[in-house]
Amino acid sequence: MAQAKILAICGSLRKASFNRRILAFAVQGAREAGGEVEECDLDLPLYNGDIEAQGLPPKVVALRDKIAAADGLLIAAPENNHGLSAALKNAIDWASRPPSVWPGKVAASCGATSGLFGTVRASIQLRTTLAAVQVTLLPQHVWVSQVHKKFDDQEKFGDTEAIQKLKELGALLVKTVGVTAVAVAS
Ligand SMILES: Cc1cc2nc3c(=O)[nH]c(=O)nc-3n(C[C@H](O)[C@H](O)[C@H](O)COP(=O)(O)O)c2cc1C
């Protein structure tokens, strides 16, 4: 099989996002497993049917094209008020508009919060929403609680167990995408 194409999606727009930083370990795992990983920009206009009726904004088209071209999705889902971040939900909504680019994709997720429950609640919403758009989300959500306490003064992430799990998550996605592609082809 050709190299698995993975799209890394960070649900936080913040440059110094903890979610972006933990996603990097999953990306590393995916690359080490042979995947080709691309990143994307979720800084999109808010979904509005009137904007859509005038034609999709270029950033939305770019995101939709990247999702369509990907075999697998590596998603970092922050938790805002016990739910998905607006940026991530907005991107899922834009890309679901007909013709939706989501059906048949396989995804793996992780998330980091400053709180004690490390995106567990947001991960449940993510699973529900991805099911609605026909994306298969692997069961292994990797979550990191109290993430702000796990970076040292040099901004180095010290949770070695989480790093290992994140790398394994990226590798698992690449492996699963390969198996799915073989199953679909035969
Ligand atoms: C609007 C808002 C809502 C939040 N809600 C939660 C929450 O429900 N649970 C939680 O653990 N942390 C919550 N947080 C704290 C975030 O986990 C924390 O800011 C985290 O660093 C955000 O991810 P990022 O660093 O990737 O941007 C919230 C933060 C914001 C800005």
The end-to-end span amounts to: 12 Å
Bound molecules: flavin mononucleotide
Helix fraction?
A: 40-55%
Question: Mind telling me the C-alpha Rg?
Answer: 16 Å
Per CATH, the superfamily is Flavodoxin domain
Number of strands: 8
Work out the strand percent.
Answer: 15-25%
Mean pLDDT: 95
Explain the layout of strands and helices:
Elements lengths: L4 E6 L7 H15 L3 E4 L9 H6 L3 H12 L2 E5 L2 E2 L2 E2 L1 H11 L9 E7 L7 H13 L3 E2 L4 E3 L15 H26 L1
Parallel strand pairs: 1-2, 1-3, 3-6, 6-7, 6-8
Antiparallel strand pairs: 4-5
Using brief descriptors, characterize the structure shown.
binds flavin mononucleotide, six-stranded parallel beta sheet, Rossmann fold, alpha/beta, single chain
Structure description:
Helix 1 packs across helix 6 (160-185). The model has no long low-confidence stretch (mean pLDDT 95). Strands 1, 2, 3, 6, 7 and 8 form a six-stranded parallel β-sheet that branches. The protein is built from six helices and eight strands. Helix content is 45%, strand content 17%. The protein has helices spanning 18-32, 49-54, 58-69, 86-96, 120-132, 160-185; strands spanning 5-10, 36-39, 72-76, 79-80, 83-84, 106-112, 136-137, 142-144. The two termini are 12 Å apart. It has a single domain, classed as 3-Layer(aba) Sandwich (Rossmann fold). A hairpin with a 2-residue loop joins strand 4 (79-80) and strand 5. It is of the alpha/beta class and 186 residues long. Flavin mononucleotide binds at residues 12, 14, 17-19, 78-82, 113-115, 117.
